[in-house]
Design goal:
The chain is an alpha+beta fold and 482 residues long. The protein is built from 12 helices and 30 strands. Helix 1 runs parallel beside helix 7 and helix 7 runs antiparallel to helix 8. The longest helix is centred in the middle third of the chain and has 24 residues. The structure holds flavin-adenine dinucleotide.
Amino acid sequence: MVIAGGGPTGLMLAAELRLADVDVVIVERRADQFLDSSRSGGLLSRTLEVLDQRGVAERFIAAGQVFSMYGFGGMPFDVSDLPSRHSYVLALPQSTFEPMFADWVLGELGVPIIRQRAVTGFTQDPIGADVALSDGTSLRAGYLVGCDGGRSVVRKAAGIDFVGVDASTSWMIAEMETDEDPLLGMHHDDVGMHAMNRAGADGPVRVVITERELTLGDNPSIDDLRNALVGVWGTDFGLRRANWISRFTDATRQATTYRTGRVLLAGDAAHVHPPHGGQGMGTGLQDAVNLGWKLAQVVKQISPDGLLDTYHAERHPVAARVLANTMAQGLFNRGDARHQALRASLADLVTIDEVRWRLYAMLSALDIRYDLGGEHPLIGRRMPDLDLQTPDGPTRVFTLLHAATPLLLNLGAPGGFDIAPWSDRVRLVNAEYDGAWELPVIGAIDAPAAALIRPDGYVAWAGDLDHASLPVALTEWFGPAR
Ligand SMILES: Cc1cc2nc3c(=O)[nH]c(=O)nc-3n(C[C@H](O)[C@H](O)[C@H](O)COP(=O)(O)OP(=O)(O)OC[C@H]3O[C@@H](n4cnc5c(N)ncnc54)[C@H](O)[C@@H]3O)c2cc1C
């Protein structure tokens, strides 16, 4: 398996494949994991849960800062009371997260990476792909996954359309040092929203400026930054130096398909959108966790190739919704009287609990429901991290998912189902749980007698162990009885 791109998505996918004992290599054009701009500001609840499912959340939580407030369209509200162990926002710049994440994937899990080489194209046949590299060599792989960012070479070489909405607004973003005290906080004017904050107590100042004219190009100069500061605040605050300056836009695009034959796309390669609501990195990490176990099962011939089509079916709608909500949030950035009125209306609405719960569950991906059929409200939704009692002692559901293997959790009397025909792939755990069952946005649900949990933490089946639908679900998701 070859993964093009060792950003957050490519690293996560490699980890999932490695945990499943699949031979995988990352090709990454960067020499190291260093990022020369800020990018993602942190992690939201479902992404933290996904990392918790692999036993690595704590190290990131310890390195970041926990906040109980978040916002939609810049409208702040409390997010601390949703039913999740991680009902908060973790501020952790991507420039800190990525090297730590790489330490786990490349260092601890030992995934090989070919650095300072780019994927330049590929050809594919019915049993694999030949991946061309920038040094003139090539790699043969059963599957190639493009995790190579918004300008994905893999996507372009595959001829997959990237459809959506062109940029209408651009923002300059920089980390700077100034001789005078900056005006920290948000500033609205007729152009839109601008903001300055300090990275750490005495750290450099981060600034985001909505540009008066749409401007394209990644590399604004220090004079561009100076002019933009003067345009908004009337002064450059004695700008001394900029550690980095970058620009982003509200261009919003999604790949029309996430798969063509032996080639798949994940993360920014499959979807780009403005950073409103901080959902980009988490969406890519969750694409990878959805795809990883499926690819592993197909490569090991546990499941037919068609299992990979569920990746597009499940993840394309998720990113489409992220794109839609970031476009909506972009409107709240605008500074004219009509949009100010819109902001005031929203400010009122987010004081209603159901509204803020629904907005945060959407932004944080806690409310995802894959359309897997079935009656029980758990099916297609994330399995909550219940505190369980097992014959081996107390544990949590997420701890049982650390190995990234399927789990049949029996919460009724032990026995009642013979797992032997699937026991080489699915682990049966008998456990007791006497707490509440509550899902984000949905609220209280009836406790199922048993749940079949996929390696990505989503429930494939829930019900009574003696129901005829259980062997059907086991076969559908984890291969036939052996
Ligand atoms: C200004 C800004 C603010 C953001 N804020 C947030 C936020 O608050 N929260 C959030 O969740 N997300 C945010 N994002 C989005 C987030 O940065 C991306 O969604 C995330 O980095 C996507 O990860 P990825 O691995 O899919 O792609 P990338 O991070 O783009 O990684 C792609 C990797 O592929 C490599 N590569 C590219 N082409 C090739 C090639 N041909 N061959 C080999 N390697 C290649 C690149 O070097 C890179 O390492 C922000 C982005 C920007 C620009």
